[in-house]
Design goal:
Pfam families: HTH_1, LysR_substrate. By secondary structure, this protein is α/β, with parallel strands linked by helices. It folds into 3 domains: 72 residues, Winged helix-like DNA-binding domain superfamily/Winged helix DNA-binding domain (Arc Repressor Mutant, subunit A, Orthogonal Bundle); 97 residues, Periplasmic binding protein-like II (D-Maltodextrin-Binding Protein, domain 2); 100 residues, 3-Layer(aba) Sandwich (D-Maltodextrin-Binding Protein, domain 2), CATH 3.40.190. 42% of the residues lie in helices and 23% in strands. It has a 5-stranded mixed sheet. It has a 5-stranded mixed sheet with strand order 9-8-10-7-11, with helices on one face. Helix 8 links the parallel strand 8 and strand 9. It is elongated and about 75 Å long.
Length: 297
């Protein structure tokens, strides 16, 4: 590799590889388009490799470019994490842990885990982001997050999983619905109701499990709305657009206009998994996993 090739060239390449458009990549990098084109051309000459096929209105990665994009995307993210980790150490911190989670994990589980961890490792910075299930997996694969909390039963083999919560389901009804805990007998009482469910894109395995609940009660639900947000479900139920089923960990007394009935007699449970990349080298992740595994053997 030429001594003239610098880290910025690699970042320029990634921007073009992701945008597949020199003008958009240049705008993203806050440099001129001709300047970016020259830098990429120089990088290809230094490496002795053609990274892009250039057409009149189209830019396409070569096979070498596809490989370099995948490897650089992963390794540059790790390099950035290492540098950030060093900066935190310089500031008296022990490092940073980047967590992704679905909303139900934040109700009770994550605050408890973080408080427990902070009592043992007080000088750690937590970066928390609510992200849907699939984007968490993508974030783990790209090392953009260190650990996730998802409702997915099938993940790539490079991702490790551990069950941290097994949850019952709860029926969600408008506050003034004529059915309540005192007269509720079976979900089949509500077979003619419209249901508001989490979209299959939230988690296909979760959606299948919910459909199995209905199947066990011998009816197919009338699905009026699909969403990926619990807050949308509660607002729709409150305004009589339908009723719903959600994990118990998503229920809270602060939600107005709805009521919950726990379905603790049915066999189905929804599991919350902690997930992480097998090759993640963040030392904070290792200590975090050690504490959590001891709590959830």
């Amino acid at each position: 590799m030429s001594n003239q090739l610098e880290l910025r060239h690699l970042k320029y390449f990634l921007a073009v590889a992701e945008e597949l458009h020199f003008r958009r990549a240049a705008e993203r990098l806050f440099i001129s388009q001709p300047g970016l084109s020259r830098q990429i051309k120089q990088m290809e000459e230094d490496l002795g490799v053609t990274l892009f096929e250039r057409h009149n209105r189209k830019v396409v990665l070569t096979k070498a470019g596809v490989y370099l994009k995948a490897e650089l995307g992963r390794n540059l993210q790790q390099l950035e994490d290492i540098i950030n980790h060093a900066k935190l150490i310089n500031e008296g911190k022990k490092g940073q842990l980047k967590l992704g989670y679905v909303g139900s994990a934040m109700q009770e589980l994550i605050p408890k885990l973080l408080l427990k961890y902070k009592t043992r490792k007080p000088n750690v910075v937590f970066n928390l982001k609510e992200i849907d299930n699939q984007k968490q997996i993508e974030g783990l694969l790209n090392f953009k997050i260190d650990v996730g909390f998802v409702r997915l039963e099938h993940v790539p083999s490079i991702i490790e999983t551990q069950v941290v919560l097994s949850d019952t389901f709860c029926l969600v009804l408008p506050e003034h619905h004529n059915i309540d805990a005192s007269n509720f007998k079976s979900l089949s009482q509500l077979k003619d109701s419209s249901f508001i469910l989490f979209d299959p894109e939230y988690s296909a395995s979760y959606y299948d499990k919910v459909l199995q609940i209905f199947k066990d009660h011998a009816f197919t639900p009338i699905v009026s709305h699909l969403t990926i947000h619990a807050s949308s479900i509660y607002k729709l139920v409150e305004n009589n657009f339908g009723i719903s089923l959600v994990p118990k960990s998503l229920t809270t007394n602060s939600v107005r206009g709805v009521k919950f009935i726990e379905l603790d007699k049915i066999p189905q449970r929804t599991e919350l998994f902690m997930v992480w990349h097998k090759e993640n080298r963040n030392p904070i992740l290792m200590s975090f996993l050690d504490i959590i595994k001891k709590q959830n053997p």
